[in-house]
């Protein structure tokens, strides 16, 4: 929320130096909820200038927009809950003294045709005016229930209706909730299918309070998911572990937040916990030490050159129980066509367990593989598929909250 042009430009310069590929502006850039124009105090030259700046440095430009949320702004085109037209689009009335939260307001029902048309125009305007390469949506995009009787969905059953306040938003629970959501989802798919056609290169990030909209319908209309709204290493690994049973790893985004890393091993552990799918750094990298910068630059190179091709194409194996942050956990990618893969190994906080053995999967027992320990936690060696499948791969990492990447190649 504290972002501005100066900070943004400083982050863009450092991101380019680190080898990152997109500058993604999160909440905090706008005049107000429902009033999706840049705050002139923060961005005196507008957002297109920031996009241009990112492009000059070879980065894409992405933007967060909570575009189904109405607030109190009165500027032209703003979604104001007290505007009678907008009020009729919202899922329920709000009290006279209501205020939106810093980046969340009252949901409009885009299943209502006029609201649908308005939202579509706004989203297109934002993409074009601010020169977006990526659009992230957030907030309660899909209405969960609605009190209006003049919308296309079924009317609520007033004898069994509940209006619940959660944060700054009012939600409706009634017998019509499924139908409300159905119409709203159809409008969402329609808008997104239209964006695909109109802007084929635009990336679409699916987010609803982090991981509350990870589903196949969204997967068919977007590019990747924000899979969790908690960003520490353990939460990121857990979210990835869970979601990767169903969806391709490349679609699963983790935001890597600032996390206490007294040792460089802890810093790498933090980064790698978000590097199994789509990696987003949610930190001002200018605050990193010289040593952390160098380590991060090498990790990003490794991610782009060696890990990402496997994340895209390889089979994924869950070779440990769900991470608990205390014991060891790991995942394996193995690409059968290229006969190569990588094992991500994480050592939790328990320092008494300095060693762990993972039984690998997907290898051919008769083949011989080169086993390469990226951080040199052990000497590179040869092993048969049979050995790695049956006896397993033993890793020794004495430091708690540390990691290793083990490359396996025929
Ligand atoms: Zn409605």
Please tell me about this protein's structure:
By secondary structure, the protein is of the alpha/beta class. The chain folds into two domains: 5-226, Aldolase class I (TIM Barrel), CATH 3.20.20.70; 316-409, Sandwich (Immunoglobulin-like), CATH 2.60.40.1180. 31% of the residues lie in helices and 24% in strands. It is built from ten helices and 21 strands. It has helices spanning 5-18, 46-56, 84-89, 113-129, 177-198, 216-221, 233-243, 264-272, 290-313, 385-390, and strands at 22-25, 30-32, 35-38, 60-65, 69-70, 106-107, 134-137, 162-166, 169-173, 203-206, 224-226, 252-257, 278-282, 315-318, 328-335, 340-347, 355-358, 368-373, 381-384, 393-396, 402-409. The strands form six sheets. Strands 1-4-7-10-11-12-13 form a seven-stranded parallel beta sheet. Helix 4 packs parallel to helix 5 (177-198) and helix 8 packs parallel to helix 9. The protein is globular and about 70 Å long. The termini are far apart. The model has no long low-confidence stretch (mean pLDDT 97). Residues 91, 109, 111-112, 143, 146, 148, 151, 153, 180 line the site of zinc ion.
